[in-house]
Structure formats: C-alpha cells, structure tokens
Amino acid sequence: MNDLLSLNAQTGKLQWKHSITFEGVDGPSVTEAGDLVYFPDDKSLDAVRASDGHLVWQFSSPNLAFGRPVVVHGVVFANTYEAFRSHTVLCFVNCEPDMRIYALDASTGALYWYSAWKVMDTSVPPWVTTT
Questions:
Q1: Phi and psi dihedrals of 54, rounded to 5?
Q2: DSSP string, 33-91
Q3: Hey, where are the domains in the chain?
C-alpha cells in the first residue's frame, strides 16, 4: 500500500492523502486536468477531486496495469498491459492481445470505447491525436 499525496505548493502542507495499491519502480503516473486527478491504482484507473482527494470514479479492468492517463477534450485515454491468460510464455503469433487502450468520459469514467492490439515493444505508448 502506498499513498498519493497532495501538498500545498507554497507551504508544503499536506492537503490530502489517498491510499493506493501500485507496484512499480517509479510509482503511478498522475495526470491532472480541470478539477480531477487521474492515476492507476492496482487494476483500476481512479479519478479524485484535486481540491480534497475525494474519489469521483473508478474504472476497473482485468488487465495487469494501466499506463499514464492522457486527457484530451474531456476524454481520458489510458493504455493497459494485459496478462496472457492462456499462455505461460510470451508469443507473437495467434496470442491474445497484450495491450488495450480505453477512452473514458473524464467526468464520469463511463466507457466510450476500447481497442485491443498486439505490440512487441510495450515501452512505446500509442499516440492520441485529435482534430
């Protein structure tokens, strides 16, 4: 268990703390947009109010981990890295997709769409462009 902390930029005083379960070297990737803060928490993507840390919504997925969320025009895009449920080793032909990208409503967490695909290099996240 870890804590996501919000500190006052001028004084360093703790404003709020949100307990999260995240396993990773660098910790979770946090994105702030408008009055919400988005971050991965175990197998979910959470949105809390920036002012007080109150959980606004949580989107769960059977995937292993969410990547850094990106917010564009009121839509949260987040990629995930999936487990190979039917294989014990990585394979690159006829395997289950190893990555998904989700598009969620930034205010409510409602799912707009998702897409799954296979990638060999998961260190390069998909790019999102809008017009």
A1: -70, 130
A2: ETTEEEEEETTEEEEEETTT--EEEEEE-SSSEE---EEETTEEEEEEE---TT-SS--
A3: 2-117
Distance (Å, rounded) from C-alpha 59 to C-alpha 56? 10
Give CA angle at 51 (59, 102), nearest 5°. 20
Check if the beta carbon of residue 48 is closer than 8 Å to that of residue 42: no
Residues in the chain: 131
What is residue 93's DSSP assignment? S
Tokens of 39: 């971050």
Write out pLDDT tens, residues 6-16: 888 899 998 88
pLDDT tens digits along 55-82: 999 998 765 677 788 999 999 998 886 5
Whether the CB-CB separation of 131 and 108 falls below 8 Å is answered with no
Q: Which of the 8 DSSP states describes residue 122? A: T
- How would you class 112 by CB atoms within 10 Å of its CB: exposed for 0-12, middle for 13-18, buried for 19 or more? exposed
- CATH architecture of the domain covering 2-117: Beta Barrel (2.40)
Q: Is the pLDDT of residue 106 over 90?
A: yes
